[in-house]
Amino acid sequence: MDDYEYHSEICDTLRQANEDDHDLRSGRFFPEFEMPDPQIEEILPNMTNWDTLLYSREFKAINEDRGMRQVTRLLTYPLTIASVIHELSPYNIHRGGRLTVEGLKSLSALRYSLHRPRDGAGPNWQLRPRPPPVRIFILGARAESSLPRSTWLQLSFLFPRATFHLIFIGPESMTNRDVEFPLPERTPSNPFGGLVEDQISSEMKITTFVDYYHTMHKANYFQPYDPYFDCFMLFHPGLGHPASSHEWEETLPQLLETKVPIICTGYTEWDMQRDKEWVEEKMKGEVDILMEAGENQFRSLRWDLNDLDPGDISCGNWGIWAFRGKRYETQMM
């Protein structure tokens, strides 16, 4: 009986995923993809879950489950980042909040830059120099690098006094976008051929590199790193996957060397735990866990299928955890 119930559940999920896929290609108008503009600062977002966030950010009402699944498949990328680094994050240091003491230390530094106090500046004038943008390095970028830029702007709208520089890095970061955005030539001033999109808004700039991070790290291209202004994001990196772990062997020690937060997601709980165990095994205690592994409050609600194995069902950013290179406190003797 249990086998039959499991089989029925899988069939229902397969049907749902197939219908969602057909809906996306149906050519219908998608009102749920109309993103809201920035709000006044006094209106605070409620980041408890998808429903409260979309309501407090004044998205158009989504009355169907299918529409909700479609829009969360897009928004899961920027809001997964925001849900960790925002001061109103659903993850905290209280019991069951999953944030560790080291995580509070690292994220407090980042939040200090993201939520700056008012300085009397207005939209057309500045009373003091603006701080540098917060750099978010998105390594192994794939689908997330081709998201509509209006989707990524939702990240900056949650931080009205901060500016962002998103840096997509990876050999697949320009897949299916070469015709739309031809890669620039590599020159002394742009040695890695970065494609810069700086006309998106005054609060966000996006740069894409079709290269491996460890190559750029060796060239000191992004140094120095600052825990107040830098963060790494790895969407489904497959750190412990047998087919891709070798690509991270050289990169992982370099990431830990920076001592800035590294946020990582996984397709499933098993995928996430495999990545976490691989990191802990490889680095042998040189890792500080910033956030315990668990389900992502802003995971995609839409299921994805593996074409080679229909029984392999996952969803975008199901789980999330964070780590950092170990810091050693100096003690006065």
General description of the model:
With 333 residues, the chain is of the alpha/beta class. Helix content is 31%, strand content 19%. The chain has 8 helices and 10 strands. An 8-stranded mixed beta sheet has the order 3-4-2-1-5-6-10-7, with helices on both faces. The protein has a two-stranded antiparallel ribbon with strand order 8-9. β5, α7 and β6 form a beta-alpha-beta unit. The longest helix is centred in the N-terminal third of the chain and has 23 residues. It starts with a helix and ends in an 8-residue tail after the last strand. The mean pLDDT is 91.
Strand order of the largest sheet: 3-4-2-1-5-6-10-7
The rounded distance between the terminal residues' Cα atoms is: 67 Å
Structure class: alpha/beta
- Could you estimate the helical fraction of the residues in percent? 25-40%
Q: Number of DSSP strands? A: 10
Sum this structure up briefly:
31% of the residues lie in helices and 19% in strands. The protein has helices at residues 2-24, 50-56, 65-85, 101-114, 149-157, 213-218, 251-258, 269-283; strands spanning 134-139, 164-169, 195-201, 204-209, 230-234, 262-266, 287-295, 303-306, 309-315, 319-325.
Question: Can you give keywords for this protein?
Answer:
single chain; 333 residues; alpha/beta
